Amino acid sequence: NAGVTQTPKFQVLKTGQSMTLQCAQDMNHEYMSWYRQDPGMGLRLIHYSVGAGITDQGEVPNGYNVSRSTTEDFPLRLLSAAPSQTSVYFCASSYSEAGSNIQYFGAGTRLSVL
Amino acid sequence: AQSVSQHNHHVILSEAASLELGCNYSYGGTVNLFWYVQYPGQHLQLLLKYFSGDPLVKGIKGFEAEFIKSKFSFNLRKPSVQWSDTAEYFCAVTYSGSARQLTFGSGTQLTVLP
């Protein structure tokens, strides 16, 4: 049981390049989400999914796309990277307990956009 | 928009000192409250959570938190900190109606001096 696995751990991009951050979970959780973590701002929700085929925007969705073709995988795509997207990205998955989430986080992807 | 405030950005303590980290949330009806910890270079881990019942909740590693509804607060406490408690601590909230989405505070960096 690996939990939430994110790849890559580190990535450097040039402005305008595209890439996909991978996230996979093996806990059969229905809910998955992507956050970015910036100094002094905590974690902000980018996109989330409540199940395969269903995604929705979070607080800071601009510049990012997601899809959820399977329960296990929830990739995050940057179509045209910008320096403002330099951040640490965390994927999380969760089950529902008492109507709320207990979220499990991946180890993160540290992205630098030059 | 719902928000979470952590007023202490950086706290420095000596070992064996007592700890209290503040967390306040904006009013939004029924809430579920969480404290997460992020050790250097690691992902976020759940310290403790409050859904209902006894407002004093105990978590892992000797941490506890008290939910005070009248003050919209959920402060984290530990009677005697250790060097290994050095980490960043995040308060998070889910609000009724969006119970699957976590809203995070900006985080408090705790440094414990040996």
CATH class of chain B: Mainly Beta
Number of domains of chain B: 1
The amount of helix of chain A comes to: under 10%
Low-confidence stretches of chain A: none
Strand content of chain A: over 45%
Looking at CATH, the homologous superfamily of chain B is Immunoglobulins
Using the 3D structure, state the CATH architecture of chain B: Sandwich
Measured by DSSP, the beta-strand proportion of chain B falls in over 45%
The number of helical segments of chain B is 0
Tell me the CATH topology of chain B.
Immunoglobulin-like
- Secondary-structure-derived class of chain B: mainly beta
What's the alpha carbon Rg of chain B, rounded to whole Å?
14 Å
Cα(first) to Cα(last) distance of chain A is 36 Å
Q: What overall geometry of chain B do the principal axes of the alpha carbons give?
A: globular
Count of individual beta strands of chain A: 11
Net shape of chain A: globular
Order of helices and strands of chain B: EEEEEEEEEEEE
- Share in helix of chain B: under 10%
Distance, first to last CA of chain B: 41 Å
| Main sheet specs of chain B | 6 strands, mixed
Element pattern of chain A in H and E:
EEEEEEEEEEE
Short précis:
Chain A is mainly β. Chain A has strands spanning 4-7, 10-13, 19-25, 31-38, 42-51, 54-57, 64-66, 76-78, 87-97, 100-105, 109-113.
Can you describe what's shown?
The complex is a heterodimer of chains A (114) and B (114). Chain A has 114 residues and is mostly beta strands. Helices cover 0% and strands 57% of the residues of chain A. Chain A has strands spanning 4-7, 10-13, 19-25, 31-38, 42-51, 54-57, 64-66, 76-78, 87-97, 100-105, 109-113. In chain A, the strands form two sheets. In chain A, strands 2, 4, 5, 6, 9, 10 and 11 form a seven-stranded mixed beta sheet that branches. In chain A, strands 1-3-8-7 form a four-stranded antiparallel beta sheet, with no helix packed on it. The termini of chain A are far apart. Chain B is mainly β. Chain B has one domain: Immunoglobulin-like. Helix content of chain B is 0%, strand content 50%. Chain B contains no helices and twelve strands. Chain B has strands at residues 4-5, 10-14, 19-21, 24-25, 31-38, 45-50, 56-58, 64-68, 73-78, 87-95, 103-104, 108-113. In chain B, strands 2, 5, 6, 10, 11 and 12 form a six-stranded mixed beta sheet that branches. The radius of gyration of chain B is 14 Å and the shape is globular. Chain B starts with a strand and ends with a strand. The interface between A and B is medium-sized, with 28 and 24 residues.
